[in-house]
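User: Earlier you gave me the apo prediction for this protein. Now I'd like the version with manganese (II) ion bound, so I can compare the two side by side. Same sequence as before, with the ligand SMILES added.
Assistant: Got it. Here's the input I'm using:
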Amino acid sequence: MQEEIQKHNLASFTQVSEAFDFLANKLTKNGLDVGNILSQLSGFQVAIPSWALGAGGTRFGRYGIGGEPANLEDKIQDVGLIHALTGCAGAISLHIPWDIPSDTQAIKELAAANGLVFDAVNSNTFQDQADQKLSYKFGSLSNVNKDIRDLAIDHNKQVIDIGNALGSKSITVWLADGSNFPGQSNFRNALDFTARSLQEIYQYMPTDWSMFIEYKPYEPHFYHTVIQDWGTSFMLANACGDRAYTLVDLGHHLPNTNIENIVSTLIYQGKLGGFHFNDSKYGDDDLTVGSIKPYQLFLIFNELVWGLDNNTKNNPAPAWMIDASHNLKDPIEDLIQSLDAILIAFAQALIIDQNALQAAQMNHDVSLAQEILQDAYRTDVRPLIQKMRASKNVAIDPLKAYRSMEIRNKLIAKRGVNSRATGL
Ligand SMILES: [Mn+2]
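And here is the structure of the complex with manganese (II) ion:
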């Protein structure tokens, strides 16, 4: 594979070097440290969730894509492949119970051989498992029935145990709990039960672990959701302790929400723990990152870069992850495109003239402030990313390399046309 990547890179190396020199020259004249930008891009790592390697679907149906990874070993190999091509997907995020390792040591070794570490582990109390005695139909951590709450708490503890054995350092809790009809649920009691349940899970975590609390305004419930917004998540994180944080999933907002403002506020409080990338047109659409609203992604990265450069409350480095669903595209191609979009937005944010922007803000020069942001956004930063990839010996154009190596056909030949990813 490494040889094929080098062959692919050789074909475009001269062109990449010329484009890079031209851009680097311009950025240097603007007072930017291009070497520093390249090293920040090179160090940026995004986790791939174990559920993202197969075809997703909707409640209406699902169309397989062939050669899907049918077990955890295959999923790790797919992430390893993406990492070998892009150099920026060096972590996998497991979903329990869809991906419980049968042999922890063997799974750890396989991940290490693929250059991967284990990112946050994800619990699941949004569906019942085959052998489950009590049901989550009317809620899990928020349920009025203590036995059901305890079952959900024990599940989260088991997820921490599995993650701990693999070297994970965090758990992400996304709670689907809510209600579909007015009167069905007592809001305050549901929230109070949730706070107590989360506190019990938090207390169980090893002392070097963090908890990420994800929020979402609606779906699967359509009247009320217990952890509906960043404020509720923030409040619950504070109720748990210093190592509990809010997790922002881009798709978990009502249309036109100013997500960059939320990001800024959370970093201001040192409480932005995790980040799930995707894109959306209407709701939690889970589309390819940057496919619908690339300018919004850039504005979010502006807040991330500035916020973490001016990190007065010591916000830890957020856990980056792609959380998307692939209904039409080959999931590996979709993930490569998403990683591209993330790096492009990050690079654009890194070249913003922050001093000039601050001066424009101080002078109330609204037009100039917009010009400064859009000058960065309208710069083609791809030569920076290509140069970084060439120097890391990963594919300059990962999607093109993936296609020219005919990897999907090889996976179909190996795993079969009907192989189906577990959990979906
Ligand atoms: Mn998510």
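For your comparison, keep in mind: The pocket of manganese (II) ion is lined by residues 174, 214, 249, 276, 323 (CB under 6 Å).
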